């Protein structure tokens, strides 16, 4: 009887179908043994899962590198951060240089405009001076003509009389 009580799980292959499920619902001992067999299969699956966990651990190591949990990597990443800051500083310098160039262009344009305005004012002043000189010459010539040719008029008047 003691041999009947001990079941190694391999004796009841008659109750299993091709799909591996136990079809004998009446015998609870067989179900427990099959559950143990299933647990053993699960343990094998767990070994496979352990392999997957090892792969996940490798991924976690990559994540650790990514998040800089290692002190040695922190120094390297700090250098990278400094390089990024340098790039930002370079961008700031470029921005400042562009602003300075724009200011110089505006000053040059304003200087050119001021020079053009000054030249126009000088030309207008020269024209006004020339007009004044011509008017002065005309007025002087008229007055001179009156004085110079006045005696002829008097002579002519005298001659008529």
The tally of strands reads: 0
SSE series = HHH
The residue ranges in which pLDDT falls below 50 over 5 or more consecutive positions are none
What is the rounded distance between the termini? Answer: 189 Å
Query: Which structural class best describes the helix and strand composition?
Result: mainly alpha
What global shape is seen? rod-shaped
Report the radius of gyration as a whole number of Å. Answer: 58 Å
| Count of runs of 4 or more consecutive helical residues | 3
Per DSSP, what share of the residues sits in E-state strands of 2 or more residues? under 5%
The residue fraction in helices comes out at: over 70%
> What is the residue-averaged pLDDT?
66
What is the makeup of the main sheet?
A: none
Question: Would you write up a description of this structure?
Answer:
The structure is a single chain. The protein is mainly α and 161 residues long. The chain has a domain at 25-67. The chain has 3 helices and no strands. The protein has helices at 2-5, 28-66, 71-160. It is rod-shaped, with a radius of gyration of 58 Å. Residues 1-88 are annotated as: Disordered.
List the helices and strands and how they pair.
Layout: H1 2-5, H2 28-66, H3 71-160
Summed up:
The chain has 161 residues and is mainly alpha-helical. The chain has helices at residues 2-5, 28-66, 71-160.
Keywords, separated by commas or semicolons:
rod-shaped; mainly alpha; single chain; 161 residues; 3 helices
């Amino acid at each position: 009887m003691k041999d009947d009580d001990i079941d190694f799980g391999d004796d009841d292959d008659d109750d299993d179908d091709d799909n591996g499920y136990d079809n004998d619902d009446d015998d609870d001992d067989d179900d427990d043994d099959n559950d143990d067999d299933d647990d053993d299969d699960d343990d094998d699956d767990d070994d496979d899962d352990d392999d997957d966990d090892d792969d996940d651990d490798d991924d976690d190591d990559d994540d650790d590198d990514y998040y800089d949990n290692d002190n040695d990597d922190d120094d390297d990443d700090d250098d990278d951060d400094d390089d990024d800051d340098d790039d930002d500083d370079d961008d700031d310098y470029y921005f400042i240089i562009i602003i300075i160039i724009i200011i110089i262009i505006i000053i040059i344009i304003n200087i050119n405009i001021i020079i053009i305005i000054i030249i126009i004012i000088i030309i207008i002043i020269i024209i006004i001076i020339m007009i004044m000189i011509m008017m002065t010459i005309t007025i002087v010539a008229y007055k001179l003509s009156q004085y110079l040719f006045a005696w002829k008029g008097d002579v002519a008047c005298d001659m008529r009389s």
